[in-house]
Specification:
It contains twelve helices and six strands. By secondary structure, it is an alpha/beta fold. β2 (about 200-205) and β3 (about 210-215) form a beta hairpin.
Length: about 350
């Protein structure tokens, strides 16, 4: 999601006042009675400065989407990332400033026209002072919108027509590695927890059907209310996008989490979401799958329906996973499909 560049109050005022001076300088060469010229010059400075500042504020407002008009996935994503209420409050402040500056433009334009030439400069300075005060009152709101711009610039682009498969599991179980094998995505892959800092999406096509594979940040075995923003982004993807879930166990437990904890997370997801689940046991090439270890791992394998035993790092089991993905059907989401299926770029606000 690309928001327009957000200026600081000083940048906004500097641009308005410079353009006002430039417009006034052009009027100095015009022929008109001396008692009118000074007033016209100062009036031009005020009106031009106000219009330039208002145009910039309007551009920000016009290029920022109405939150309620976005699909629920994006609404929740924005709320988790920056806070919808704070976002709306900041935009409301800009709208307030636009209205006040419009009033000042009319008020001081009229005052200067009715004044004497001697008073015109003083009125223009008075207007500039009030304009500056208004703009500085929205400084924290401009700062917030700049923060939102930076925070939301990597918001994922979702194809709501594709069959969407969301990969879920604990950190470092091999989700990103699996994504690179199944799709054309190139996520960052590293051997430490929470490598995936945001939702990443890869795509592939089979038999004229488009599939979208979504790699979520690692989920931890704890209540949703205790999750951090990274984990909540993953839950948003699961809730709004998943036609099916690829849940990955690390059978070797080298991710740092016991199979018991991984299974608890699976049960949490099953209780919250109704999407079908494809069960994968990864890293089985290093799971020391013999003796006591065999019985221990097999206990959890037996708890899952038709699980696949794979090694994502070695590319083992990938074709079998793709075969299962191709059996997934699109789940009905009337609101998203009907309202947004023909509007692919509404959030790309360049």
């Amino acid at each position: 999601m690309m928001l327009p560049t957000i200026p600081t109050p000083d940048e906004l005022l500097d641009k308005g006042f410079r353009r006002g001076k430039k417009a006034a300088d052009l009027r100095r060469g015009e022929k008109m009675p001396k008692h009118l010229k000074g007033k016209r010059i100062e009036e031009t400075r005020v009106i031009t400065a106000c219009q330039v500042i208002k145009d910039r504020l309007k551009m920000i407002l016009d290029r920022t989407p109405e939150i309620e008009e976005l699909p629920e996935f994006y609404q929740d994503y924005i709320d988790i990332t920056v806070g919808v209420d704070d976002f709306k409050q900041a935009l409301g402040a800009l709208n307030w400033a636009y209205g006040i500056i419009t009033q000042l433009e009319k008020e001081y334009g009229a005052k200067i026209r009715k004044s004497s030439s001697e008073r015109a400069t003083g009125l223009r300075k008075q207007a500039y002072g009030r304009i500056s005060s208004v703009v500085h009152k929205i400084e924290k709101d401009l700062d917030f919108l700049d923060f939102a711009k930076q925070s939301l610039r990597n918001m994922p682009t979702v194809d709501f027509d594709a069959i969407s498969i969301v990969i879920a599991g604990f950190p470092n179980v091999g989700k990103s590695t699996l994504l690179t094998h199944i799709t054309d995505a190139e996520p960052q892959v590293a051997n430490y927890p929470f490598t995936t800092k945001g939702i990443q999406i890869g795509h592939f096509e089979k038999k004229w059907q488009h599939y979208q594979i979504i790699d979520t940040p690692g989920l931890l075995d704890r209540p949703i209310g205790d999750m951090n923003d990274i984990e909540l982004n993953a839950m948003v993807a699961l809730e709004h996008l998943a036609d099916a879930i690829l849940f990955i166990f690390d059978g070797s437990e080298t991710c740092g989490y016991l199979l018991e904890n991984q299974y608890n997370l699976l049960e949490e997801i099953q209780n919250v979401f109704d999407a079908p689940i494809i069960y994968l046991f990864n890293k089985m090439d290093i799971a020391e799958y013999d003796g006591i270890r065999h019985d221990y791992v097999q206990e959890y394998i037996d708890k899952c329906e038709n699980p696949l035993l794979i090694s994502a790092a070695e590319g083992e089991g990938i074709e079998e996973i793709i075969d299962l993905i191709m059996k997934v059907e699109k789940r009905e989401r009337v609101e998203e499909e009907e309202e947004y299926e023909d509007d692919e770029n509404y959030f790309d606000l360049t």
